[in-house]
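Researcher: Let's do a round of design. I'm pasting the structure tokens now; please hold your answer until I've finished.
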């Protein structure tokens, strides 16, 4: 059978959508039931790529398939390879869960299928972007004039922010990079924290700036030394400076010393960009903001996302640009077919992409569901769970917590009497993953292998951490005792 032709009567069309969406809803609720109610279901994938290829692949058939069957097939075929990353004991990468209101809003976003190109493409999207911009700037305590763009991810937010930084810095030195390109442009003294996420270096590469980067050393928490920055600026007087630091180093959760760094760079007429993929949300907690994020409002640009710590579904990133004029100047938008009333918000005049998903609806829903206090509580709770894990594991013989737990990242090192601690840590990680009660992956921090935990899920409880500790201890003890068998 093939899909109904587009000329189908309205009632047939409606019943097609009704039937397929109800089917999708049933599958979704069953997935969530398993995720949250079936405690022994492994968190990691249960099948192999070969199984997935057999189920998903083969030649694309000449004929179509009824929509409802497609949905059933998709669910069956992906099952062996889905990672239950919404579960409270999934600690891999930095991956949040999804708040119910945000998930529902995401479904509606697909239903509405708005084109976010300019105001008239979707007034609802344009105004929701305006509202989310104001809410976020207020919630995070940024400069009130800050201009915001919504992107697919933190990486795209870095690219967008650094495009603005490049334009603005070179314009101050008499060069319009948007009109003239980079050939013959003044050099930029780009100083980056050596531990900064590759999202930053990749964006600089894309912008043709990788040859101008100097990496500055970072300490055990991943923070630059203010004196190093001062010396690197002084070494090249008169050269435009771009400093890239971070809030929430990917391994340790460490935060650069924002106020002195911003003061320093601004005194030299430079631009400070911060990668804050997850860490920026700590600004919603008055305690963390005062202790770690003092001066965040001084940064010229910040890249973050909502799909990690704020618990919206993938994907949504956010770029904050403190100077709204600089933001607009970097993305001149003229096209014969675009009507750009200057009193309205035109999303593609603030972005690299033109057409895109209205990803602000799930964000709006998440912020509404949580409220200001809810965001602060989410951040505080996940930080408390991180401390719980670190404290419980620190009392286990042969386990070292490698980082000071500033935020929501914990690095565990497992030691073996034989002395090969890296290999032992890798084995503990494998066994922990196979045990299925939780999921985390190893990293290399300053040359040392560690098991890295990232707490970003709104559903993670103290019991989840207790269960994780039980499993980790058992994996570590069995492997130390030389038992190669299953956990
Ligand atoms: C995840 C992450 C990024 C990249 O974010 P995406 O949304 O995956 O592009 C950058 N920096 C840090 C610290 C991260 O945790």
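Researcher: That's everything. Go ahead.
Model: Designed sequence:
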């Amino acid at each position: 059978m093939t899909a109904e032709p587009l000329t189908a009567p309205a009632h047939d069309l409606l019943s097609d959508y009704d039937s397929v969406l109800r089917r999708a809803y049933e599958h979704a609720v069953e997935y969530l039931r398993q995720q949250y109610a079936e405690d022994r279901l492994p968190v990691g994938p249960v099948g192999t790529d070969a199984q997935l290829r057999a189920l998903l692949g083969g030649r694309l058939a000449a004929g179509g398939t009824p929509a409802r069957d497609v949905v059933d097939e998709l669910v069956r075929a992906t099952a062996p390879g889905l990672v239950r990353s919404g579960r409270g004991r999934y600690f891999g990468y930095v991956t949040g869960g999804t708040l119910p209101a945000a998930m529902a809003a995401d479904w509606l976003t697909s239903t509405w299928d708005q084109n976010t190109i300019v105001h008239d493409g979707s007034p609802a999207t344009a105004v929701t972007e305006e509202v989310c911009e104001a809410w976020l700037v207020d919630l995070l305590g940024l400069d009130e004039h800050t201009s915001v763009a919504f992107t697919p991810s933190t990486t795209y937010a870095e690219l967008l922010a650094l495009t603005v930084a490049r334009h603005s810095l070179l314009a101050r030195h008499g060069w319009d990079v948007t009109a003239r390109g980079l050939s013959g442009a003044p050099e930029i003294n780009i100083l980056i924290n050596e531990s900064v996420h590759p999202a930053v270096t990749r964006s600089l590469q894309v912008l043709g700036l990788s040859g101008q980067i100097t990496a500055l050393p970072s300490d055990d928490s991943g923070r630059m030394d203010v004196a190093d920055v001062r010396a690197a600026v002084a070494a090249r007087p008169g050269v435009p400076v771009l400093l890239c630091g971070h809030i929430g180093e990917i391994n340790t959760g460490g935060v650069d010393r924002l106020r002195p760094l911003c003061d320093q760079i601004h005194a030299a007429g430079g631009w400070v960009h911060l990668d804050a993929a997850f860490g920026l949300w700590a600004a919603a907690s008055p305690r963390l903001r005062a202790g770690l994020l003092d001066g965040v409002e001084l940064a010229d640009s910040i890249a973050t996302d909502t799909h990690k710590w704020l618990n919206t579904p993938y994907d949504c990133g956010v770029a904050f640009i403190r100077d709204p004029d600089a933001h607009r100047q970097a993305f001149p938008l003229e096209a014969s077919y675009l009507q750009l009333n200057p009193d309205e918000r035109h999303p593609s005049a603030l972005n690299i992409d033109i057409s895109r998903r209205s990803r602000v609806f799930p964000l709006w829903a998440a912020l509404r569901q949580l409220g200001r206090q809810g965001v602060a509580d989410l951040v505080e709770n996940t930080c408390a769970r991180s401390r719980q894990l670190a404290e419980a594991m620190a009392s286990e013989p042969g386990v070292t917590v490698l980082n000071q737990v500033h935020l929501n990242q914990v690095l565990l090192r497992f030691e073996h009497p034989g002395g090969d601690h890296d290999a032992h840590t890798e084995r503990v990680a494998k066994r922990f993953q196979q045990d299925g009660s939780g999921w985390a992956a190893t990293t290399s921090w300053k040359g040392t292998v560690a098991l890295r935990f990232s707490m970003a899920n709104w559903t993670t409880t103290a019991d989840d951490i207790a269960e994780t500790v039980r499993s980790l201890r058992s994996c570590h003890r069995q492997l130390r005792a030389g038992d190669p068998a299953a956990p």
